[in-house]
Specification:
Blueprint lengths: L2 H13 L16 E6 L6 H17 L7 E7 L4 E3 L5 E3 L1 E2 L7 E6 L5 H5 L2 H12 L1 E6 L3 H7 L7 E2 L6 H7 L4 E2 L5 E4 L2 E4 L4 H14 L1 H10 L13 H7 L7 H10 L7 H7 L4 H12 L3 H19 L4 H7 L5 H12 L3 H8 L2 E2 L2 E2 L5 H6 L1
Parallel strand pairs: 1-2, 1-6, 2-5, 6-7, 7-11, 8-9
Antiparallel strand pairs: 3-4, 10-11, 12-13
Length: 366
């Protein structure tokens, strides 16, 4: 293994939320058959992205059991138009009988109609029972939830639809922040391109980090985005409320992240008691004041790690953390990375070197 590969593999191993033996179903498969359940209006990249990852493994590897047999099936076979007009040649659902290695369900604009297709939902439920693992991309998590497969589990979906999913399926714990989540044999990923990240993670579980790294290099991809990285800023934007005085407090928090910001001080600015403020804030924003402040502090820290050479201690101070240790714990808990690891992968460069424009990070987060 090369030195570069060892470095990436080391980070991947530290970030991994699972081991291959603990999250798959007890389904005996004789071949690595990947079945993608396509429907009219499925998001094109939800289908083609993971397909390209698995097909790239087939180009790189050979030998019994090492390659994937890719199969698209649909209740609307044989010709199924996707969201961008690309027509997928699919087989009938019945063609996917027998044991399945990986069942994958995409999202897309056609999701509403797919959710109304009770026979399709029933097929997903039955197919999942004979699959080693079940995955979804973007809104595909709705289909798994509609089939009752995610009850009592954690799942994610596109940041724009997580609240709708949480309301529609209260038995599912919907987490909008990670780009993919593994819970038992189920893997749900967030918006569109994150299906590629999820597919790389599945390849890593099957063939190890070296193979996944080679696939990422072949497809000119970042290997691999840590869970929680991609959707984070979008979720924060979605949590801005128009309800006053809460929105005014949110704006003030943004300008004062270097301060302690106890709930009592935030409540004073809203002219409420701390207990009443906490209830109103959570109802309007969806998280507690403490959780919201902590996420904003981490968002500011990420920006400073990306565009400055400030030390970890300086960044912790600017973002309102009382100690470096507190900052490290909060950063790792939310993003699954140390600040140093984050900086290594996401620091912004141009061909002439690091771009450090004074005040840029502060203006970006304003």
């Amino acid at each position: 293994m090369s030195e570069a590969s060892e470095g990436v593999a080391g980070i991947v191993n530290k970030l991994s939320l699972w081991t291959a033996h603990c999250w798959e179903q007890s389904v005996i498969v004789k071949e690595r058959r990947v079945v993608i359940a396509v429907y009219p209006g499925a998001q094109t990249l939800d289908v083609s992205g993971p397909l390209e990852v698995f097909d790239s493994v087939n180009r790189l590897l050979s030998g019994p059991g090492s390659t994937y047999r890719l199969q698209c099936v649909s209740p609307d076979a044989p010709s199924v138009p996707t969201s961008a007009g690309l027509v997928v040649q699919a087989e009938p659902l019945e063609a996917a009988e027998g044991a399945i290695d990986t069942l994958l369900v995409p999202g897309g604009p056609g999701l509403k109609e797919a959710l109304l297709n009770s026979s399709f939902i029933a097929w997903i439920r039955r197919a999942a029972a004979r699959s080693r693992r079940v995955a979804s991309v973007c809104g595909g998590a709705f289909l798994l939830a509609e089939a009752g497969l995610l009850d009592g589990r954690r799942a994610t979906t596109h940041w724009a639809f997580w609240e709708q999913m949480a309301r529609r399926y209260p038995e599912v714990t919907v987490d909008p922040e990670p780009i993919f989540i593994r819970d038992g044999p189920f893997v749900t990923s967030a918006g569109v391109s994150t299906g590629i990240d999820m597919a790389l993670a599945l390849v890593e579980g099957d063939h190890g980090p070296d193979c996944a790294l080679e696939v990422a290099k072949f497809l000119v991809l970042y290997f691999k985005r840590p869970g929680g990285q991609a959707q984070f800023s979008m979720v924060l934007d979605a949590q801005l409320t128009e309800q006053e005085p809460i929105r005014g407090v949110q704006d003030w928090i943004q300008e004062n992240l270097h301060r302690a910001l106890p709930v009592s001080e935030l409540a004073d600015r809203a002219s409420m008691s701390p207990r009443h403020f906490a209830r109103v804030f959570r109802r309007a924003v969806g998280v507690t004041p403490g959780q919201y402040v902590r996420r904003l502090r981490i968002a500011r820290a990420r920006q400073l790690l990306e565009v400055t050479e400030l030390s970890v201690g300086q960044i912790a101070s600017r973002c309102g953390f009382t100690t470096v240790e507190t900052f490290l714990r909060a950063f790792g808990a939310l993003l699954g990375l140390t600040p140093a690891q984050y900086r290594q992968h996401f620091q912004l460069h141009t061909p002439s070197g690091l771009v450090v424009e004074p005040g840029w990070a502060e203006r970006r987060s304003a």
